[in-house]
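subagent[fold] <- orchestrator: predict structure for attached chain, return tokens only, no commentary.
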Amino acid sequence: MLAFARFYRVNADELLVAWLSDKLASEVQDEHVGLIAIQVAEEKLKFQRIKNTLSKK
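subagent[fold] -> orchestrator:
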């Protein structure tokens, strides 16, 4: 991905965000609770980030 970003002179983080968001949307698009699942996943990621931050102290 980094090589691709460098070659096309685009921001690697923006490229990764675009790819991941497309992947997530594609994965849950046909699920009637897809949006809720993404929101729950977001909360889990936030909790994990806090947990990891606290464990480093």
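orchestrator: received. Logging for downstream: The longest helix spans residues 34-55. The CA atoms of residues 36 and 42 lie 10 Å apart.
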